[in-house]
Amino acid sequence: QFLMANKLDTAMWISRLFTVYCSALFVLPLLGLHEAASFYQRALLANALTSALRLHQRLPHFQLSRAFLAQALLEDSCHYLLYSLIFVNSYPVTMSIFPVLLFSLLHAATYTKKVLDARSSNSLPFLRNLLEKLNANQQNILKFIACNEIFLMPATVFMLFSGQGSLLQPFIYYRFLTLRYSSRRNPYCRTLFTELRIVVEHLIMKPSCPIFVRRLCLRSISFISRLAPTVA
Questions:
Q1: Between the CA of residue 114 and those of 2, 12, 91, 104, 133, what are the distances in Å?
Q2: Quick one: 131 exposed, middle or buried, by C-beta within 10 A (0-12, 13-18, 19+)?
Q3: Helix residue ranges, H only, 1-75
Q4: 121-142, pLDDT tens digit by residue?
Q5: SS3 content of the chain, % helix, strand, coil (to 5)
Q6: Residue 166: how many CB atoms within 10 A of its CB?
Q7: pTM greater than the 0.85 cutoff
Q8: What is the pLDDT of residues 188-214, one digit of tens each?
């Protein structure tokens, strides 16, 4: 009754569980490397479906207008719909599957707890214990996802020069990264950029750091800072 009363949430729960399943079989290619590549695409397509359903839930009344598009781009679900479309037809990259896997795992765990609560307050204690441990590490997981989002930017450039990526991919991914940086719901991308900058500046200001490395890092920090969008 609980599942039928929340059909859209249930559909997203199932698609997230399927995303976790496909992502796990890509990261751990138990069925062979050839099959792993197909699971990579399935995971991203399932994530695109989940993101589209979530976006429809957040913005139910679609309008073909600039204002609607601007509002949609503020939603995290729109960001990951774009993310899935960027990588679904690209060369499989393990780094790119981790944000999809971990976000799906976190959201699926939250809804699984609701399903267990609807069934019985004491049902499946072992599973509840696992869900609680996952929830306790949520902040670390979100930081890890943000790290993946950031370091995928140079990875897309490397893929381009190695012949495994398209010319447009780094530019489209840069747009995705600016959306994540400006996210209202998830500040971890901004936080990680700040923390990485502090760590790099601390290291390059040590007397043992060569002058040319210091200058190169300072110029890189200045360049990246200019590319960062303004956050309201």
A1: 9, 14, 37, 16, 16
A2: middle
A3: 2-5, 7-27, 33-58, 66-72
A4: 777 778 888 888 988 899 999 9
A5: 75, 0, 25
A6: 15
A7: yes
A8: 999 999 999 999 999 999 888 889 999
